[in-house]
């Protein structure tokens, strides 16, 4: 299965279908890693490790995609944006966003957006076990609300077998999301690129695909496959 997956990856690479080829490379590497763990023959392990190294070099640094979300555009819910990168081997996610704070401030729904993102991860098809959140403390009276909401999300995720690790930084500015299959997504507005719904019973309040967006840019990269053998 690993050989066939790698062959398919090479074919897609030659056809300049880099996104699809990277997914195949990742799956091929993952299958070979399983073989390495299962074999006791040191010579075979050495050959497999060499092959994994070659595949890593082939897949490394070949992909950058930019998506421009126009003002008031719809159809950019989290599933639409992230699902193709959430392959079955994804088990760990990092979210860095300084504004996962108040439920409502300046027409923004940061905490609800993060909750919606977590819901998407729980639904799969990935098998996420750990989510790391790095954000900043809310200032003033909003901090207790922030902490209470994050703890509630953490407890709720634990019911689905997902651990939420929360850290805070007073100097964080960049916004990015990383998956342990090598994909990294940078969104200019972070998870908060949706406009305030017109009302609690208006179309788009629950379904983010129908929610108008603020103008923003999404950059998708692939980083070096760093899983340890």
Automatic annotation (TrEMBL):
InterPro entries, per database record: MIT_dom (IPR007330), MIT_dom_sf (IPR036181), MIT_domain_contain_protein1 (IPR052817), MITD1_C (IPR032341), MITD1_C_sf (IPR038113)
One GO cellular component term noted in the UniProt record for this chain: midbody
Positions of the MIT domain: 1-65
Organism domain of life: Eukaryota
Gene Ontology BP, a term: midbody abscission
Pfam family, one: MIT_C
Protein name: MITD1 protein
Organism, scientific name: Pardalotus punctatus (spotted pardalote)
């Amino acid at each position: 299965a690993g050989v066939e997956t790698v062959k398919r990856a090479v074919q897609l690479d030659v056809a300049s279908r880099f996104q699809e080829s990277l997914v195949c490379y990742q799956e091929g590497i993952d299958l070979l890693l399983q073989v390495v763990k299962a074999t006791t023959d040191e010579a075979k392990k050495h050959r497999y490790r060499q092959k994994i190294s070659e595949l890593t070099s082939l897949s490394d640094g070949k992909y950058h995609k930019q998506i421009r979300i126009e003002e008031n555009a719809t159809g950019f819910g989290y599933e639409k944006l992230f699902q193709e990168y959430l392959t079955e081997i994804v088990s760990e996610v990092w979210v860095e966003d300084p504004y996962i704070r108040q439920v409502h401030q300046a027409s923004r729904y940061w905490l609800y957006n993060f909750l919606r993102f977590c819901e998407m991860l729980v639904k799969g098809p990935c098998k996420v076990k750990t989510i790391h959140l790095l954000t900043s403390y809310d200032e003033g009276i909003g901090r207790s609300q922030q902490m209470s909401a994050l703890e509630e999300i953490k407890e709720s995720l634990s019911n689905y077998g997902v651990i939420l690790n929360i850290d805070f930084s007073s100097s964080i500015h960049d916004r990015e999301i990383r998956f342990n299959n090598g994909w990294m997504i940078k969104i200019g507005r972070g998870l908060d690129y949706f406009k305030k719904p017109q009302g609690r019973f208006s179309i788009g309040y629950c379904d983010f695909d129908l929610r108008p967006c603020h103008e923003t840019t999404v950059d998708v990269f692939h980083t070096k496959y760093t899983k340890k053998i």
